[in-house]
Design brief:
The structure holds three protein chains of three kinds.
Chain A lengths: L1 H9 L1 E6 L2 E6 L4 H7 L23 E6 L2 E6 L10 E3 L3 H16 L15 H9 L17 E2 L4 E3 L9 H9 L5 E4 L6 E4 L10 H7 L5 E3 L12 E6 L8 E7 L2 E7 L12 H5 L14 E4 L2 E4 L2 H13 L6 E5 L5 H15 L4 E2 L8 H6 L14 E5 L3 H4 L1 H12 L3 E6 L11 E4 L5 H10 L5 H8 L3 E5 L8 H11 L6 E4 L6 H6 L6 E2 L3 E2 L3 H11 L10 H10 L4 E5 L3 H4 L3 H10 L2 E6 L11 E4 L8 E4 L4 E5 L12 H11 L9 H11 L8 H7 L5 E2 L24 E7 L7 H4 L2 H4 L7 E3 L1 H6 L7 E4 L3 E7 L7 E5 L13 E6 L5
Parallel strand pairs in A: 1-5, 16-17, 16-25, 18-19, 18-21, 19-20, 21-22, 25-26, 26-27, 31-35, 32-34
Antiparallel strand pairs in A: 1-2, 3-4, 3-5, 6-7, 7-10, 8-9, 11-12, 12-13, 14-15, 14-27, 23-24, 28-29, 29-30, 31-36, 32-35, 33-34, 33-36
Helix pairs in contact in A: 3-4, 5-6, 8-21, 9-21, 9-22, 13-15, 18-20
Chain B lengths: L7 H5 L7 H6 L4 H9 L2 H11 L11 H6 L8 E6 L8 H8 L1 H15 L3 E6 L4 H17 L14 E6 L9 H8 L23 E5 H5 L1 H7 L1 H5 L9 E8 L5 E6 L4 H8 L9 E5 L19 H6 L8 E6 L4 H15 L5 H19 L6 H12 L15 H4 L2 H9 L1 H6 L2 H7 L1
Chain C lengths: L3 H4 L7 H12 L8 H12 L4 H11 L3 H8 L13 E6 L2 H5 L2 H12 L5 E2 L5 E6 L10 E4 L2 E4 L3 H14 L6 H8 L13 E3 L11 E3 L3
Parallel strand pairs in C: 1-3
Antiparallel strand pairs in C: 1-4, 2-3, 4-5, 6-7
Helix pairs in contact in C: 2-3, 3-4, 4-5, 7-8
Classes of the chains: A alpha/beta, B alpha/beta, C alpha+beta.
Bound molecules: flavin mononucleotide, iron/sulfur cluster and FE2/S2 (inorganic) cluster.
Chain lengths: 813, 429, 214
């Protein structure tokens, strides 16, 4: 299918529209071809990203056929050579006006209170051609006014034109067929099943595609009128996909986020987290001034005082005694400035954007061959061995679904069930911790995995790899990558969660990487950076876990946290707490007081997504621009500016005067980023960004699959920490419309294990002696492992160790 | 001279024409045994092609030509359309209840000709008795080795089962039927692709009507040319007509086309009940525009009837005498289509119901003079130009069908319609 | 898909209906095709298509309950509200309309004391307006639990309602009712049958029929 579109792209056909010949791309729908040459045919059911259904009949045009001119829906017609089309004839106009009248007879006239008022094609077309007075004197169809069909979406059936867009989004795109047509004929209506809400991670897309005001979002309802909106194009930083968005603001507030078309990345779709979590910007709990510790609480101080304090405290340590953790949610410019500050001003190599939850920096940043997201549309097999995409990279999940719709086979290997299982060709589940063993079996191509190996060996493959859970040995992902490099096809895409991790790594926020993926052991590469920066510590530094251990032991003294919460996110929360408590000085740039920043000596209010300009890099290496839609909240600042001031107070000049200067510096210093400026991204690439090349910067990656499988210990269970889209992270917690969607925490156990432990559904177990959870008996869990939610309030403090003790709690009498 | 193909057995053996014993006893399955033993699939198909039989489901598409479109990729399916729901039509019910083995033999022969190994009989849910009789016939045929694996030792195998509808006229439309058979809403699909290319489960599929397939044993036994030589050219063969309404002798009649409407209504139908006068009749089911006495001597062939701006459709002739309130009759038909609209196309979903509402108003005595233009203009927005065959703003012809009675009553009985509307009474009166 | 896990959702169904469900699922190339027959079977189990029934069918064929409801609500024969022991469907489409179907319907409403689609308080009888039931030659026609009676009259339908109330047959037989209350037929029906409907589910072997005397 995708192939066909690609070859067709080169083929042109000539069609005649209203007497004028046009050369248009073959294979496309007439409605799209006409639009391409400036003839907009009205429509309701047609949507570029959905399969045509031809139901609303608004787009009828006349096409010359063997039996004369015939009315046909232009949304289902594929253009062909010599097609003669009339889009303006009397017959066409009458048919279109007839459809409009039919749609209006049962449509309420409540445009003035409708969220869609002002951007509604039904309203627009009625003003343009509608009959002045209604010939319909019967009573209109009535339904109960807006009914909530989920926590975030409301449905008003009276306004619905039954275009089938929401149903197609829910069923075909998202795979959540929870909103359907009910009844038939004149009684047809859209509905969810009683007591089964439209709980889809993608529900907001239905609101966006609804051509009228039938589906509205709880968030946006009555908030603004379209003519008051200011719109800014940007990308989402909720995960490493970087879906294109439009941020809509009014009177200094973001009121909604829309998906924007970027076929390279998101096809116009967003996850509800991308869409609805903008509310965190306006959260009451934002840190809006610098805060200094005073015993158990914080006092507000001014920025100059805060800067002076950071400069003097950091300046008092040896460079090697200071480290930084974080920067993965920052822009490339901020990340670059942070790295430059730490290395050239503080003089330390201890820098890490990840918190022990990611991949080895060189693997994530420079794995080759690197596939593109769009390659998914033309390969014969997609191979996923990493996190559950639906929960961690939901828009990537949609892309994989699309690949499967286009005919690709899908192989999913994971320790537990995943969102993709139902459409996978092969699902392999392994006991958490025994992945290396599974990989060895796969690589040998014999035994139970022979069929899987065969699928992977035949045809082209894109491999999506990463860590299935934070409890999993990071070496496994490396081994998987080593195996997958041997498969035919475009290559691999590494999977990491946090917003701009790939950008941060490319900017050198890793103990062994310098900007442009230059290794610290690459003398030539590092010396050219040293020349530019003036000072550069020699060799590799400690990673996050190493820094935390060194802080606890006193080998390191101070820490800079940048939008990072190791107490929540690192595999050993206990270590993180002890490290932060032991440190002499901790400064945290953050938008919120988190479990980690709460332990800092000084908290600096950070500007966040939506408040800063800059560039970011996604998981395929695509660089795109993020745009400021609002001024930073309160006294919040971009860390770029704050670090510049701190450096100045320490007697150094980072030359980070503004974003453009830093972008320019990156483009000269990091060869892959040559020529990549925000203007270039916005104008030269139509906002769809550019993939920075891998060639010449890649590290030679030597993979040795090793046997690291965890021995089976009968009274202990290997741990799988399952991520979920709505977790206890700062984003979900501070977005009211989605914070209620965090699933209840349970410990999932295989039925056989449950009976060995003498527990059943809903009885309580202790995990690793630190927490208690109710049991869910689940046959998709592999025997010998326990599945527990990651980053959930109820699992706080649980270390991500390979194996944990699980025991039944006897109920008290 | 009566030529009977489909109804001989039930006429001659009313008490047990549906049984296996009677079917065998009257030569049943002999054609199948012969064909499997000594004919190739191509030979069977070419007899059907030569018969020129035009589909009896309503559209009248030549059966052999349709078979020729079947894509050659396995698996492929045969689906028997026994959803008969067009008001006025009850012929398939008789064929199902009274001679189910004839249909089963037709199915096996057709499947053999087409290389098909799985068939589904889609029977409307309101026909439980027909379903029971066909089910019994299927079971008997399996038992006797005329269905199942290796039929009559030929190596050819076929599985057949019944799928009962859920109460929806639109499922008679072949693509809606396929959706229904797939466990979906009975909404017609966009064409192309046609079922012969992508039908049931997106596989190549032939959909044929019960009556069409019931003819196949005779065609294979007697030869396609024997069939095509019966009746006028382009309207070959015998055909079941369902006669109902104000005739003295309603019922199904198997006739050779070419006779006049007068012969059918006054001859076979015995004329109008109670000595009344003929006012109008529907020649081919509720979807068809009506005819009036001036057309009585037109020959009853597909082409002649098309020339009059209507159709033979499903062969349902509904006769109305002079006592008929044509507005009420039109309302009954329009209400039917509004009730049965699947609802996906805006003009059909909204338009049929609006037409129903306007007619209801007129019948209630609250019609307005502008309502006649309104009825016609709403109709025109469903079927532009109100021509024959109908142009459509819709996916399938159901919506446009609802305009047939509107066109008919305003064309032939305008005064009567006006008389029901207050403003006109003054003007006319 | 139709594995044992899904079967467990209908463990409370009668063993007979569980067996039928399994056979129905096995008879189609794709599970989803079994939705309609399973809805009939579920109506037989619960007396109408309850929300639970839709969930059960959804689990059996592996689709969402919302999709099952979407299908069930498309068709007129899947009743989503309790329906009487005897569902009387009166045809008023064109041929029946011409011969008094509307009067028959009115007589049925008044004899049962209910309106369209309603059920008597004792839960015995429901009356509905039906569209063409393929008995035009025997117009006007009605069905009781989809078993046909042709050539009925307003008087006869009142008698039919009384008879159903009085005798409360476990199974309604088309031949018997035709004999008692019918008139002109569309055609000769052939041999009589002793199989009929025991509820408002079409009396067809795989899911609805029952023999006389049961
Ligand atoms: C609204 C509508 C209803 C139909 N109903 C029936 C029907 O009840 N029975 C039937 O055989 N064909 C019906 N058809 C025609 C079928 O779509 C299809 O043409 C037919 O089953 C093909 O069989 P044939 O070629 O043997 O006639 C209907 C068509 C339409 C548009
Ligand atoms: S014309 Fe009516 S019945 Fe036919 S597809 Fe359209 S809405 Fe459905
Ligand atoms: S846009 Fe073409 S039919 Fe709706």
């Amino acid at each position: 299918m995708a192939d066909a579109t690609r070859t067709a792209a080169e083929n042109l056909v000539t069609i005649t529209i209203n007497g004028i010949d046009h050369s248009v791309r073959a294979g496309q729908r007439l409605i799209t071809a006409a639009e391409g040459i400036g003839d907009y045919i009205p429509r309701f059911c047609h949507h570029d990203k959905l399969e045509p259904v031809g139901k609303c009949r608004m787009c009828l045009v006349e096409v010359e056929g063997p039996r004369g001119k015939q009315l046909v829906p232009s949304c289902t017609m594929i253009v062909n050579e010599g097609m003669v089309v009339d889009t303006e004839s009397v017959v066409v106009k009458k048919a279109q006006e007839g459809v409009l009248e039919f749609l209006l007879i049962n449509h309420p006239l409540d445009c003035s209170v409708c969220d869609k008022g002002g951007e509604c094609p039904l309203q627009d077309q009625t003003y343009a051609h509608g009959p002045g007075e209604s010939r319909f004197i019967e009573t209109k169809r009535t339904f109960k006014k807006p009914i909530p069909i989920s926590d975030v979406v409301l449905l008003d059936r009276e306004r619905c034109v039954l275009c089938d867009r929401c149903v197609r989004v829910a069923d075909d795109i998202a795979g959540d067929p929870l909103i359907t047509f009910n009844e038939r004929g004149n009684s047809t209506q859209i509905l969810t099943f009683p007591n089964e809400p439209f709980s889809s991670y993608f529900s907001g897309n239905t609101v966006q595609v609804c051509p009228v005001g039938a589906l509205t979002s709880v968030d946006y309802r009555f908030r603004a009128r379209p003519w008051d909106l200011e719109k800014v194009s940007s990308v989402s930083l909720r995960d490493t996909m970087h879906s294109s968005v439009e941020i809509h603001t009014t009177r200094g507030k973001v009121v909604r986020v829309y998906g924007a078309d970027n076929d390279h990345v998101n096809d116009g779709w967003l996850s509800d987290k991308d869409r609805f979590s903008f509310a965190t910007l306006h959260s009451e709990d934002r840190v809006t001034t610098p805060l200094v510790r005073n015993g158990d609480s914080f006092d507000k101080i001014s920025w100059p005082e805060a800067i002076e304090m950071v400069a003097s405290r950091l300046g008092a340590f040896l460079g090697q005694e200071v480290g930084s953790i974080g920067g993965a949610n920052s822009t490339n410019e901020e990340a670059y400035t942070l790295g430059k500050f730490m290395r050239s001003v503080v003089g330390t190599p201890h820098i890490d954007a990840q918190v022990g939850d990611g991949l080895k920096p060189h693997l994530a940043a420079a794995v080759t061959p690197r596939a593109l997201i769009q390659d998914l549309e033309s390969v014969s097999t997609v191979f996923v061995w990493g996190p559950d995409l639906k929960e961690t990279l939901p828009v990537m999940y949609l892309r994989v679904r699309k690949a499967v719709r286009n005919g690709a086979k899908l192989v999913v290997i994971h320790p537990a069930s995943t969102g993709l299982d139902s459409i996978a060709t092969h699902v392999v589940r392994y006991r958490a911790g025994s992945g290396q063993d599974t990989l060895r079996k796969l690589a040998s191509g014999e035994g139970e995995l022979a069929g899987v190996a065969e699928t992977l060996a035949s045809g082209s493959v894109v491999t999506l790899f990463g860590r299935a859970s934070i409890a999993e040995d990071p070496g496994l992902a490396e081994s998987v990558a080593a195996y997958a490099r041997g498969l035919d096809g475009p290559g691999l895409i590494p999977l990491l969660g946090r917003g701009n991790t790939f950008g941060a790594l490319d900017m050198g926020l890793a103990p062994n990487l310098l900007p442009g993926r230059v290794s610290t052991s690459d003398e030539k590469g590092s010396s050219s950076i040293e020349d530019a920066w003036g000072l550069m510590p020699v060799g590799a530094g400690r990673d996050s876990m190493g820094m935390l251990a060194a802080l606890r032991s006193g080998d390191m003294k101070a820490l800079v946290l940048v939008g990072s919460d190791p107490v929540r996110d690192c595999p050993d929360p206990g270590l993180a707490v002890e490290a932060l408590e032991a440190a002499d000085f901790v400064v945290a740039f953050d938008a919120f007081l988190t479990d980690s920043s709460r332990l800092a000596d000084l908290v600096l209010p950070a500007a966040v997504w939506g408040e800063v300009d800059g560039t970011v890099t996604n998981l395929e290496g695509r660089v795109q621009a993020v745009k400021r839609a609002l001024p930073p909240r309160g006294q919040a600042q971009s860390i770029m500016g704050a670090l510049s001031d701190i450096a100045f107070a320490m007697g150094a000049d980072l030359k980070a005067f503004d974003v453009a200067t830093v972008t320019k510096e990156i483009s000269t210093l990091a060869p892959a980023y040559e020529g990549v400026t925000p203007d270039y991204l916005t104008f030269e690439t139509d906002g769809t960004g550019v993939v920075v090349p891998m060639d010449g910067v890649a590290q030679p990656l030597g993979y040795i699959p090793t046997d690291m499988s965890v021995p089976i210990v009968t009274d202990r269970f290997t741990l799988h920490l399952a991520a979920s889209l709505y977790d206890d992270g700062v984003t979900t917690r501070n977005a009211p419309s989605i914070s209620g969607l965090v699933p209840k925490a349970v410990a999932r156990l295989n039925p056989k294990d449950a009976s060995l432990l003498a527990v059943s559904q809903d009885s309580v177990v202790t995990i690793a002696d630190v927490l208690e959870l109710p049991v869910a008996v689940d046959s998709t869990v592999v025997q010998g492992s326990v599945v527990v939610p990651f980053n959930h309030a109820a699992t706080k403090g649980l270390s991500a160790t390979a194996a944990v003790a699980v025991a039944a709690v006897r109920s008290e009498i | 001279m009566t030529t009977r193909i489909l109804t001989t057995r039930m006429e001659e053996h009313p008490s047990d024409s549906n049984s296996m014993a009677r079917y065998l006893d009257t030569g049943g399955y002999a054609t199948l045994r012969h064909a499997l033993a000594s004919l190739s699939p191509e030979q069977v198909a070419s007899e059907v092609k030569a018969s020129n039989l035009r589909g009896r489901g309503g559209a009248g598409f030549p059966m052999g030509v349709k078979w020729g479109f079947l894509a050659d990729s396995d698996p492929k399916y045969l689906v028997i359309n026994a959803d008969e729901s067009e008001p006025g039509t009850f012929k398939d019910r008789q064929l199902l209840e009274r001679d189910p083995h004839q249909l089963v033999e037709g199915i096996v022969l057709s499947s053999f000709a087409l290389g098909i190994h799985r068939a589904f009989i889609y029977i409307r849910g309101e026909y439980p008795k027909a379903a029971r009789r066909v089910q019994q016939a299927i079971e008997e045929a399996f038992e006797a080795g005329y269905l199942g694996a290796d039929i009559c030792g030929s190596g050819f195998s076929l599985d057949v089962s019944i799928h009962l509808g859920g109460g929806a006229y639109i499922c008679g439309e072949e693509t809606a039927l396929l959706n229904s058979l797939e466990g979906r809403r009975g909404e017609p699909r966009l064409k192309p692709p046609f079922p012969a290319v992508a039908g049931l489960y997106s596989r190549p599929t032939i959909v044929n009507n019960v009556e069409s397939l019931s003819n196949v044993p005779w065609i294979v036994a007697n030869g396609g040319t024997a069939y095509s030589s019966i009746g006028p050219e382009r309207s070959a063969g015998t055909r079941m007509f369902s006669l109902s309404g104000h005739v003295k002798k309603p019922g199904n009649y198997e006739i050779v086309m070419g006779m006049s409407w007068r012969d059918l209504i006054y001859g076979i139908g015995g004329g109008i009940r109670d000595g009344n006068e003929l006012k109008t009749w529907i020649p081919g089911g509720a979807s068809a525009p009506w005819l009036v006495p001036e057309h009585l001597d037109t020959p009853l062939t597909i082409d002649d009837v098309t020339a009059l701006g209507t159709m033979l459709g499903s062969g349902a002739v509904v006769v109305m005498d002079q006592t008929t309130d044509v507005v009420a009759a039109a309302h009954s038909i329009v209400r039917f289509f509004a009730h049965e609209s699947c609802g996906q196309c805006t003009p059909c979903r909204e338009g049929t119901r609006w037409l129903q509402d306007i007619l209801e108003r007129i019948l209630d005595g609250s019609g307005r003079p502008s309502d006649i233009d309104l009825l016609l203009d709403v109709s025109d927005n469903i079927s532009p130009g109100l021509t024959w065959p109908p142009a459509m703003t819709t996916i399938c012809p159901l919506g446009p069908s609802a305009t047939a009675p509107i066109v008919s009553i305003t064309k032939y009985f305008l005064d009567e319609v006006k008389a029901k509307i207050d403003g006109f009474e003054v003007a006319v009166g | 898909m139709s594995g044992s896990m899904n079967r467990s959702v209908i463990n409370h169904w009668s063993p007979e209906n569980q067996r039928r469900a399994a056979a129905i699922l096995a008879s189609y190339p794709e599970d989803r095709s079994a939705v309609m027959p399973l809805l009939y079977l579920a109506s037989r189990e619960h007396r109408y298509v309850t929300e639970d029934a839709m969930k059960e069918v959804a689990a059996l064929v592996g689709i969402a309950a919302a999709q099952v409801r979407s299908v069930a609500s498309f068709y007129t024969m899947y009743k989503r509200e309790p329906v009487g022991d005897y569902l009387i469907s009166v045809c008023t489409s064109i041929s029946c309309h011409l011969l008094g179907g509307d009067q028959v319907l009115a007589a049925a409403f008044s004899a049962a004391g209910v309106g369209n689609g309603e059920t008597t308080e004792d839960g015995k009888i429901s009356v509905e307006r039906a569209e063409c039931i393929g008995a035009c030659g025997g117009a006007p026609a009605v069905q009781v639990n989809y078993e046909l009676i042709e050539g009925i009259t307003p008087d006869k339908i009142a008698a039919l309602v009384a008879w159903l109330n009085d005798t409360q047959p476990n199974v309604v037989l088309t031949d018997e009712m035709q004999q008692l209350f019918g008139g002109q037929r569309s055609f000769d029906w052939g041999p009589t049958e002793s199989v009929g409907a025991s509820s408002a589910v079409p009396a067809f072997g795989p899911y609805g029929s029952a023999s006389e005397g049961q």
